[in-house]
């Protein structure tokens, strides 16, 4: 860094790339990565390979969940710390955060890898025994990803470009494999691991090229414990929602059978993709939100103004999914019609989920990780009960209603911690 400034500064305004550019890159990366998985699954439906679809969709879904647990909230914690650092110290803070996160995540990855292998050999079917061992290296490699560093430096778009590689590798493998589940499991699990190996290597190479190499930085046990505490709060805020979706898969299997699970996941991932797009937009604007919010001075207008683009997109996407899913259900037949019904039913949850997540992100921006975690856990418990009860009674419609209930519960718990002080101050000034 010849001038003492990171080389990426020339691509930004005031040393920081615009949030809209990062959001566009994240959305484009997701569209390519997740879109490739979607197209591969569509090909399986066209071939009538519903058993392979159900096996892959279930295992890939739980693999992504496990990878999220390994991340242990590190992207948000690291991004927040780096965003609040002074310009001259930002690179050094980024290095320390990266190695603290890597140490914590590697320990989690080792424990989860062992648990996954035990399950594969003691309780899994043929596909599980083939897929899980081949996918375990992805867990270990993901412990060294630099997503939080990119987010904190205002370069989240680059992490999106590298993150799509694991999806593309899995999609290519899904199209190429045959119908033998055991053989397919080995190929698909290996594709996931290969994709993560390339992604992590690419991230570190890009950081080195930009003058922010992640050379080894000393960390202490106390540093790692502090990082893990904050990360756990972030993880507990996002994990319950992920667990609720996987629980819905279990309920769906009990109500609709294994073939129904494949179609449910296929249609559900379209609505989930819309939610993920909104998450990318919020993520790209998170550093700016952190610098805007101040304890005691947060108002609903300030929060949603900071995420104005995400809020508007949530309305557009929810309406679009409702119309498109309804049209598919009415105009198409067979498996694609059922998937369209799933999209239409879960479209409203895209809107309610986006509003709740905006509140959660604002609370995290203020460092109130425990409040968000408590809200998410309570929402998950309500979601479990509602999914089991309403799902058994009303099928897919019941699962859609249960999801909206979880969002409402989460928003009601988070709201007081954000706005009570600000509203109280406003009342005092008026009465005076």
From TrEMBL:
Its membrane topology, per UniProt?
A: Multi-pass membrane protein
Q: Which UniProt keywords apply?
A: Cell membrane, Membrane, Transmembrane, Transmembrane helix
Main location (coarse class): membrane
Name the UniProt record assigns to this protein: O-antigen/teichoic acid export membrane protein
Protein species of origin: Rhizobium metallidurans
Source domain of life is Bacteria
**InterPro entries the record matches:** Poly_Biosynth_Transport
List all membrane-crossing ranges.
21-46, 52-74, 103-124, 157-178, 184-208, 309-332, 338-359, 371-394, 400-419
Supply one GO CC term from the record.
plasma membrane
**What are the subcellular locations of this protein?**
Cell membrane
């Amino acid at each position: 860094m010849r001038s003492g400034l990171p080389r990426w500064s020339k691509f930004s305004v005031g040393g920081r790339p615009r949030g809209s550019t990062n959001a566009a890159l994240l959305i484009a990366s997701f569209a390519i990565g997740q879109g490739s998985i979607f197209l591969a699954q569509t090909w399986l439906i066209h071939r009538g390979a519903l058993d392979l679809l159900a096996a892959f969709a279930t295992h890939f879904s739980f693999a992504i969940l496990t990878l999220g647990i390994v991340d242990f909230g590190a992207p948000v914690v690291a991004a927040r710390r780096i965003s609040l650092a002074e310009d001259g110290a930002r690179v050094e803070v980024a290095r320390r955060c990266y190695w603290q996160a890597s140490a914590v995540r590697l320990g989690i990855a080792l424990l989860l890898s062992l648990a996954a292998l035990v399950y594969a050999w003691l309780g899994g079917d043929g596909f599980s025994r083939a897929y899980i061992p081949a996918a375990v290296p992805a867990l270990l490699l993901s412990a060294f990803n630099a997503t939080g560093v990119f987010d904190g430096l205002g370069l989240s778009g680059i992490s999106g470009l590298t993150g799509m590689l694991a999806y593309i590798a899995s999609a290519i493998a899904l199209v190429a494999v045959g119908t033998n589940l055991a053989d397919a499991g080995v190929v698909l699990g290996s594709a996931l691991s290969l994709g993560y190996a390339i992604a992590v290597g690419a991230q570190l190479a890009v950081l080195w090229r930009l003058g922010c190499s992640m050379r080894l930085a000393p960390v202490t046990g106390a540093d790692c414990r502090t990082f893990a505490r904050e990360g756990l709060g972030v993880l507990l805020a996002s994990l319950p929602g992920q667990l609720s979706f996987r629980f819905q898969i279990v309920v769906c299997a009990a109500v609709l059978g294994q073939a129904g699970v494949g179609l449910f996941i296929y249609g559900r991932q379209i609505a989930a993709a819309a939610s993920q797009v909104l998450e990318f937009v919020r993520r790209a604007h998170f550093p700016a939100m952190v610098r805007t919010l101040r304890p005691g001075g947060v108002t609903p207008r300030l929060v949603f103004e900071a995420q104005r683009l995400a809020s508007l997109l949530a309305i557009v996407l929810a309406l679009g999914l409702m119309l498109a899913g309804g049209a598919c259900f009415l105009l198409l037949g067979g498996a694609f019609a059922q998937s369209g019904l799933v999209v239409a039913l879960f479209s409203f949850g895209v809107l309610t989920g986006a509003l709740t997540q905006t509140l959660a992100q604002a609370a995290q921006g203020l460092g109130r990780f425990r409040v968000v975690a408590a809200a998410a856990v309570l929402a998950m418990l309500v979601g479990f009960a509602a999914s089991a009860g309403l799902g058994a009674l009303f099928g897919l419609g019941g699962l859609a209603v249960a999801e909206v209930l979880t969002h409402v519960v989460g928003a009601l718990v988070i709201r007081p911690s954000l706005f009570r002080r600000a509203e109280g101050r406003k009342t005092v000034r008026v009465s005076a």
